């Protein structure tokens, strides 16, 4: 097994779960004659009875770390929390999963990040209200910590557009002969020029179709994949219920979703896919096998509440799924 560092956010997720107050409603206006979906209607000054509350641990960094740890990899989490009960809950979760939290930093004068998730029980759709808190910035983290860890892989989710810190960690990883997998977020994508420069350090790039089109021109998956592969050897582009496309420069695959199961909560689906791929790939599995596990892991996560309950261990007997080799 490998030594994997997961670098990213650590949040507490508070779920407010209801079956009628959060139902999506289509509304119209003179300015927007086409229907616009609103997530329920909460009137100011009123009280709304919620069916259920659930406290979970989230954030791209912790979600990915749990996938690696359950797979049997030596996993180290790098991120920020605050000195508060939410931070304690995150540390307890990491300890329970056997994840090394000794490199977690306490952000001064900041509370631990928190997301309030309004979840419609009927559809699985949700609206997320997020206070980034300690996970708003990452410039306090020291890339030199990687020298002590000496990882095989560095897995990075969004660092809120902190390109300087991203470059420092990626460059240090390369100096240590560690491989880098990167799943950029909105704030990284908004800095296209700086982002493309960072791709020289990346071994595996994960983006969705919309994100891919923000980096390179194109509208068709094969076109986007071809252009991104000029920057990164291994590229994976997801496309929601339409599946995904991926290449490792030797093989290119177009594939669908693993199973069409009822969706209970889509939170953490992208983290489950990306970390699921790397968990299998770093364990010596083939490119195709790793893509299948990524899809299965994502499917398992969205079929349960929270970003972590459905995460697989890698020991499951997985069935085949639709795969097409692209020339």
How large is the radius of gyration?
Answer: 20 Å
- Note the main sheet: 9 strands, mixed
Query: What structural class do the secondary elements suggest?
Result: alpha/beta
CATH architecture grouping of the domain at 8-23 and 49-59 and 80-135: 3-Layer(aba) Sandwich
Head-to-tail CA distance between termini: 32 Å
CATH T-level topology of the domain at 8-23 and 49-59 and 80-135: UDP-N-acetylmuramoyl-L-alanine:D-glutamate ligase
Strands in their spatial order, largest beta sheet: 6-1-11-12-13-14-15-16-17
> How many H/I helices?
10
Indicate the CATH class of the domain at 8-23 and 49-59 and 80-135: Alpha Beta
What would you note in describing this structure?
It contains ten helices and 17 strands. It is α/β, with parallel strands linked by helices and about 325 residues long. The chain has a domain at about 10-25 and about 50-60 and about 80-135: UDP-N-acetylmuramoyl-L-alanine:D-glutamate ligase (3-Layer(aba) Sandwich), CATH 3.40.1190. A nine-stranded mixed β-sheet has the order 6-1-11-12-13-14-15-16-17, with helices on both faces. Strand 11 (about 155), helix 4 (about 165-175) and strand 12 form a beta-alpha-beta unit. It is globular, with a radius of gyration of 20 Å. The model has no long low-confidence stretch (mean pLDDT about 95).
